[in-house]
Amino acid sequence: MKKIEILARALIQNKGKVLVCRKIGSGYYFFPGGHVEFGEESEEALARELNEELGLKIKKCSFIGGLEQVYLENNKKHHEINLIFDVKVSKITTKSREKHLQFFLFDKKQLAKENILPVTLKESALKWFKNQKLFWVKLK
């Protein structure tokens, strides 16, 4: 079945550091968040995912950009749209509630050097930190 996946992702900053996560055993990181379920608003999905994964409660959530991409993974074609939000939380933690995920705080210089996927999203986020301008990126 062909489908487009919609994901809500958070850029969470704390004292000059940015929250990222990775699946245990993988060689890459990504911004926290997850899939938007049918009938769910993207901000609701993000709040649900951050609560499930870390127990975080969102204080403020602002849309800052998006990324649409089509890519191959395990010889299977994927099409996804990532909606990116600047998120403020009451209290930040890196203690995962899910056994398959780890969370880290990277300073922006380290963030630039790490394998964070999608790469174009990492680059767009780093640019956004400097200019605060909305972005939309399409990759094929």
Commentary on this structure:
With 140 residues, the chain is of the alpha/beta class. It is globular. The chain has helices at residues 42-54, 108-113, 119-131, and strands at residues 5-14, 17-23, 33-35, 58-73, 76-89, 101-107, 135-139. Strand 4 and strand 5 form a beta hairpin.
Short description:
This protein is of the alpha/beta class. Helices cover 23% and strands 44% of the residues.
CATH architecture: Alpha-Beta Complex
Helix and strand run = EEEHEEEHHE
Helix segment tally = 3
- The total tally of domains equals 1
Query: Gap between N and C termini, in Å?
Result: 20 Å
**CATH fold description:** Nucleoside Triphosphate Pyrophosphohydrolase
Extended strand count:
7
| CATH fourth-tier homologous superfamily | Nucleoside Triphosphate Pyrophosphohydrolase
Which secondary-structure class do the elements indicate?
alpha/beta
Estimate what percentage of residues fall within beta strands: 35-45%
Query: What fraction, in percent, of the residue positions are helical?
Result: 10-25%
Uncertain residue segments = none
- Let me know the average pLDDT: 95
Overall, the morphology is globular
